[in-house]
Write a structure and sequence with these properties.
Length: about 290
């Protein structure tokens, strides 16, 4: 039987991969070729459209800098980051759910003490974040590295401004009772950077670029599975249409409205402030791969 020309092309590419068949590289390469060829056969791009596709990916790469990762935005806005996360972090019934890292994480944030003010002088309603870390049996977890980061009142992260000043991001450590605490400002919803090729893609797809207001967290310790997550604010208009598919119901919290006298010792905002209280349940290292 003579193969259809298009089937023959796919089969020939797969045949050339037979030398690595059964290896991880082989499995990935074979699946990539099968799915990519099936995509092309379904979409049937013209040569002009294929040139546009190549140009799009070229532009995505060209927009990447140490401060901006357009490929992460592409992965996020196509739901791929959430899919990868869902397969790799499985907290079970007890553990706090994870969500996407996003493009604005820095691995070397300013190290601060518990109770620090990290608002960098940004305008906004003061927000007291009080977290508690426990294991799945409710025992407090001390000495856990806590990274947090969030947007300012205008919807921008520090790394999106020139100057290299770091604010609304910090690294601290849970205390002997598993608690951590810091002062920031109430975050607002923000658009992901949409002045590049990913923004153009969203417009072409009839989608908005907004993310509901949130605070990012990353918890790390040798004995626990690293948890990357957010806390979203209840009532946000974008909870049902997050541009990067990161919202999970269990990660939505109401803020308490507090009078100035309710501020704990250490920092007095001198005005009404908001408080976010949340317990995060962390699972043992290795458990997420079970
Ligand atoms: Fe964010």
């Amino acid at each position: 039987m003579v193969e259809e020309p298009m089937t023959a092309i796919t089969n020939e590419v797969l045949r050339r991969l037979s030398g690595v068949s059964g290896t991880r590289a082989g499995t990935i390469s074979e699946a990539l070729v099968r799915h990519l060829h099936a995509f092309i056969l379904e979409v049937r791009p013209s040569t002009v459209e294929w040139e546009q596709a190549i140009r799009f990916l070229t532009e995505v790469g060209a927009r990447c800098t140490p401060e901006r990762q357009e490929f992460i935005l592409l992965s996020d806005t196509l739901g791929v980051s959430t899919l990868v996360d869902a397969m790799n972090y499985t907290p079970g019934e007890e553990g706090t759910e994870s969500t996407v890292l996003g493009p604005f994480y820095l691995s070397d944030p300013p190290v601060v003490a518990n109770g620090a003010v990290i608002d960098g002088g940004c305008l906004g309603t003061p927000l007291l974040v009080e977290g508690t870390l426990t294991d799945v049996e409710g025992h407090p977890l001390s000495g856990v590295q806590v990274d947090t980061w969030q947007a300012d009142g205008d919807g921008f992260y520090d790394v999106q401004h020139d100057g290299g000043v770091r604010y609304l991001r910090a690294r601290l450590e849970s205390d002997a009772n598993g608690n951590f605490r810091f002062w920031s400002i109430v975050p607002s919803p923000y658009p992901i950077p949409d002045d590049g090729p990913v923004g153009a893609m969203l417009r072409e797809q009839g989608r908005h670029p907004y993310r509901p207001a949130h605070v990012h967290f990353r918890f790390a310790h040798p004995n626990i599975a690293t948890l990357v997550t957010h806390i979203f604010l209840a009532g946000d208009p974008y909870l049902d249409s997050d541009a990067v598919f990161g919202v999970k119901d269990s990660l939505i919290e109401e803020l308490d409205s507090c009078s100035p006298e309710e501020a704990p010792e250490g920092h007095q905002p001198g005005r009404t402030f908001a408080r976010l209280r949340r317990t995060f349940v962390l699972i043992p290292a290795g458990y997420e791969l079970a």
